[in-house]
Write a structure and sequence with these properties.
single chain; about 140 residues; mainly alpha; Cytochrome Bc1 Complex, Chain D, domain 2; two-stranded antiparallel ribbon; 6 helices; globular; binds heme C
């Protein structure tokens, strides 16, 4: 699957995103295996401890594709359903904003626009996903 994804064109990727959306149509969160990354413990970090870490980027790519792509777009290219995360600030402010959203989700006027991931994804998985998002070019 991963090798298949890597060679995909932009248009094909979009179609695949739809296929993924159907495959995970129930929205069940997918576990992310963070074996090999330094463990972070209980305390929440304020900045991404894995910025630029190649293993984190690889783990984050699969974590992103199975949990976030159905709304935020395959390879982090938004199709318009949700904000394009490639344009998040790649600094401490961006890290804080990211962590707040992924932990709590987004709720507007009582409607859940994005589910919360705290309790479903580990802190390690969250920062790995952030490392992957940061690695995507803004083209
Ligand atoms: C069900 C669809 C959905 C899923 C799944 C989802 N999101 Fe979101 N996300 C949204 C929407 C919609 C918004 C915009 C909410 C608003 O109106 O403020 C958003 C906002 C965000 C923001 C803030 C962006 C900004 O520019 O302010 C971040 C960061 C984010 N999501 C990260 C993630 C990550 C990481 C995942 C996967 C772990 C994820 N989201 C999964 C729908 C989703």
């Amino acid at each position: 699957m991963k090798r298949f994804l890597a060679g995909f064109s932009a248009t094909g990727g979009y179609l695949l995103a739809i296929a993924i959306a159907c495959a995970h149509g129930d929205g069940a969160p997918q576990p992310v295996d963070t074996t090999g990354l330094p463990e972070l413990g209980e305390e929440w970090r304020t900045q991404n401890p894995y910025r630029g870490n190649d293993l984190a980027i690889k783990i984050g790519a699969s974590g992103y594709n199975s949990n976030c792509a159905r709304c935020h777009g395959l390879e982090v290219k938004s199709g318009g359903l949700a904000p394009d995360l490639r344009y998040l600030e790649e600094d401490a402010d961006g890290d804080a904003w990211f962590l707040n959203r992924i932990r709590r989700g987004a709720h507007v006027n009582g409607v859940t626009k994005m589910p919360k991931f705290e309790g479903l994804l580990s802190q390690e998985a969250m920062w790995a996903i952030r490392a992957y998002i940061d690695s995507r070019p803004e083209d």
